[in-house]
Amino acid sequence: MNVITNKNIKCTIALAALESVMDPEIGLNVVDLGLIYQIDFDEAERKIYVTMTLTTQFCPMGESITGAVKRVLESTFTCEEVFIELSFDTPWNHERISEHGQHFLNK
Question: Sheet harboring 81-86: ordered strands across?
Answer without folding.
Answer: 4-5, 36-42, 47-52, 81-86
